[in-house]
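FYI - complex with tetrahydrodeoxyuridine, inputs then prediction.
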Amino acid sequence: MNKEITIYYEEYEHWSSLSGQEQGMIEKAYQMCETAYAPYSKFHVGATVLLSNGTIVSGNNQENIAYPSGLCAERVALFYVGANHPKEQIDTIVVVAKGDLVPEDKLLSPCGGCRQVMLESEMRQEKNIRVVLVNQIGKTIVFHSIKDLVPFAFGL
Ligand code: THU
């Protein structure tokens, strides 16, 4: 029998349609791209995370000459939350990318490893996490749960 999965997401021409708080998170995520350490890929990624107490935590990708030793922006931010705000729920994560090799109209979608970590954050808190992805010309997509990014996820 053939089956089908439906994934829901919102799409906007520009992030100015989002709330003021999320617009601020997007601006901060782009600021974080400036301090990404990405001399090898030249792919600068910024992530901001909104916690339920209103705290905003941000991260960016950190590379290493021994390539697998680096870490993606999303995981830098999420692991900081796990270490420093373990009792707070995560409300939203914003992810953006820029750099010489990133086309302006390219909308970054988190890698599989980051999706798996985001999923576990969502499972631990038993509350959906909103995922906001933006490209450099403003196009925006919003997911209402990490589960929409990881169908048939590994886990119990
Ligand atoms: N990267 C991220 O920061 N997040 C992702 O979801 C995908 C990739 C980083 C890792 C590496 O520093 C660079 O982008 C190129 O893969």
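The beta strands are 9-12, 44-51, 56-60, 90-98, 130-134, 140-143. The two ends are 25 Å apart (CA to CA).
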